[in-house]
Amino acid sequence: MKRLKFKLPTGLSPLIAFGIILAIVLFVMGGGIYLLVSGASFNNPYGGLVSTSLSDQYGIETLLSIAFMFIGFLGFLLIYESTKHVYNASYATKLLILGIVLIVIAVGLLYWMLISKTPWLFPWAYNSGS
Questions:
Q1: Neighbouring residues of 108: CB distance < 8 A, sequence distance ≥ 6
Q2: How many angstroms separate the CA atoms of 15 and 4, rounded?
Q3: Local structure of 98: helix, strand or coil
Q4: What's this model's pTM, rounded to 2 decimal places?
Q5: How does residue 6 score in pLDDT terms, banded at 50, 70 and 90?
């Protein structure tokens, strides 16, 4: 059985290749394919950043979801970097805490988008206490 070997094109640094792959993954996960196929507009005629319909997605939602996922990725990257500084405990702790904070912020913002998009799925978020 023959092994598959992947080689980068000559002249392309691994960091640039990683950046291109990361951009493609974030674009696909953020809903960029749906945006291209559906031809959705970037402005929401009803106002707000997130459409309340599951069958609609506007360009701003795509950009927001990509940005929030990138913030989460940066958090994981900072946690990974903190493991490289084991002999400088204060710096490693700062990187670790900052990474965890970025991940919590990203997840919270993505949940905010999900709650805004599907209020019927999260009745506790819209319950005014009465």
A1: none
A2: 22
A3: helix
A4: 0.78
A5: confident
Residue boundaries of the structural domains of the chain: 26-33+57-120
Please give the average per-residue pLDDT across 98-113, as a whole number: 95
pLDDT at 57: 78
> d(Cα 59, Cα 8) in Å, to the nearest integer?
33
DSSP string, 28-85: HHTTHHHHHHHT--SS-TT-SSS-S-TT---HHHHHHHHHHHHHHHHHHHHHHHHTT-
CB burial readout 22-57, b (16+ within 10 A) else e: eeeebeeebbbeebeeeebeeebeeeeebbeeeebb
Binning pLDDT at 50, 70 and 90, where does residue 61 land? confident
Pairs from 54-57 (Cβ < 8 Å, separation ≥ 24) = 54/117, 54/118, 57/31
Contacts of 30 (CB under 8 A, 6+ apart): 62, 63, 65, 66, 69
